[in-house]
Amino acid sequence: MTHPTHGIRIEGLRKRYGEGDTAVDALKDVNMQVAPGEVVGLIGPSGSGKSTLLKCLGAVIEPTAGRMILGEQTIYDNGWTLPDLRALRRDRIGFVFQAPYLIPFLNVTDNVALLPMLAGQKNAVARARARELLAALDVAHRAEAQPSELSGGEQQRVAIARALANQPPVILADEPTAPLDSERALAVMRILNQMAAQYRTAIIVVTHDEKIIPTFRRIYHIRDGKTHEEAGEGRAIDLAPAHA
Ligand SMILES: Nc1ncnc2c1ncn2[C@@H]1O[C@H](COP(=O)(O)OP(=O)(O)OP(=O)(O)O)[C@@H](O)[C@H]1O
């Protein structure tokens, strides 16, 4: 089957934890499509299945049924279709979390270059790629600093650079703006939108953050393990300051 849009496609995804009387159907029927270059919001109350969905998409846990397509590749079709899930996570999916989780004893450039090096890139190529991304995210001047010397917003931008380092077709962001004030939260959303457009990345942002919800053009609501799509406001965010 061909997938003209690529990006992310999820069809009829289900996840059951446990068995028998104690089984929990965390995902009952999840359907989503995210185009390359698009940033969508995923919103839902506590316990609705958001983390379960991200963990399935990130190949951290195995779904029970359905299909998941990342980029050009079907990765799950009622079972994993790939032998090496570690390589999938490392090379094809970027993760951004609420906390930046930078490696404290590596400088900023090496934090970003590490994943391409692990994927087999030569050191010089990986570091050049890291410097290009740090420049795109406006933190090139901190390239030789240690993570502890950066502000929270700078650390989050380095974490975004790291998520982009292997040019994954997909980025999964879990509450990436929760600890940030309004201006910085909007700046992070602007960066994610710019990066999505520049690198044709499909990005899913799980969030409760009222500050950023108006920025999405499309939102998936998840409730009781089922997704519902709705149009967002898609409010322009180019008035936000450049520095997160
Ligand atoms: N490992 C597990 N074993 C059994 N049930 C689980 C497990 N992980 C999650 N669940 C259940 O699956 C359902 C969905 O949980 P999930 O963590 O995906 O929700 P969430 O939307 O991310 O919630 P929150 O916003 O509170 O983090 C909940 O009923 C939860 O109790």
Automatic annotation (TrEMBL):
Pfam families: ABC_tran (PF00005). SUPFAM superfamilies: P-loop containing nucleoside triphosphate hydrolases. GO terms for cellular component: plasma membrane. The keyword Transport applies. InterPro entries: AAA+_ATPase, ABC_transporter-like_ATP-bd, ABC_transporter-like_CS, ABC_transpr_LolD-like, MacB-like_ATP-bd, P-loop_NTPase. Keywords: ATP-binding, Cell membrane, Membrane, Nucleotide-binding, Transport. It comes from the Bacteria. Residues 8-244 form the ABC transporter domain. SMART domains: AAA (SM00382). This is ABC transporter ATP-binding protein. It comes from Denitromonas halophila.
